[in-house]
């Protein structure tokens, strides 16, 4: 019996996945978030979306920021070999600033049309480092659909939304010169696993990139910081509000842009030295029991508990 116990214990310990050590790190990082929007019709003739972003980059430089985080969608439709991406890289390099921004990435062979053809595009966040390199990217993992339903489910008949995009398979986790970041996009943040997964892979700062009406929920940001032992940074467009910088420990809201439909730059310095001490000794990391969490990764249909209720459906005219 004893040998069986130690055999099982050994299997459990072997299942613990080591995280690659940081090769580059700094004691702190200063991050700006641009709460703004770009509508195609508002771009002056002869200008492009990067031109509309550069004044915000300059403001972040004046704030001595190491990184600026823009909202989801701001780049618009693009391919990785577009001159627009080269220009974005050049602007980041010129300012020696990390730039994080989202847009609609089309496959190289795809035609850019609206609405896009299914399976030809992804909702992508790019991370450009200080040297102008594409350090990494994240493809949104969960489709935000069903806006015609009070429950945002199911998609309406013939709806052509994100359910036709290429979905990401895991969070972007990227090493930069100050430490390790993780990324999630908008609706990803309503699945708490999306916050926990990059933290378990070593991310110290989680970037939650949004573009939606209303306010990014501060209680989600704070809860994510508490549970994952990370700093959490949320961006939103000025179609809504709630861009936030939240630090750990204390899951404190260091900076918030709470005014609906306001354009605002927020900036805060995040302590990475103390965060690493916290993560090194974090009891919730050391006491995790992944062997008892299997239900989280098994298919489940909790709605089948209510056969006496009628699920929402659209009328015959699709409303």
**Residues in helix, %:** 10-25%
Query: What is the CATH H-level superfamily?
Result: Carbon-nitrogen hydrolase
Please state the structural category. alpha/beta
Count structural domains. Answer: 1
Q: What's the pLDDT, averaged over the residues?
A: 93
Q: What's the tally of helices?
A: 7
Predict the CATH topology: Nitrilase/N-carbamoyl-D-aminoacid amidohydrolase
Helix and strand pattern: HEHEEHEEEEEHEEHEEEEEHH
Fraction in beta strands: 15-25%
Rg (C-alpha, Å): 21 Å
The largest sheet is: 7 strands, mixed
Low-confidence stretches: 5-14
CATH top level class name: Alpha Beta
Q: Span from first to last CA?
A: 63 Å
CATH architecture: 4-Layer Sandwich
* Outline: globular
Count of individual beta strands: 15
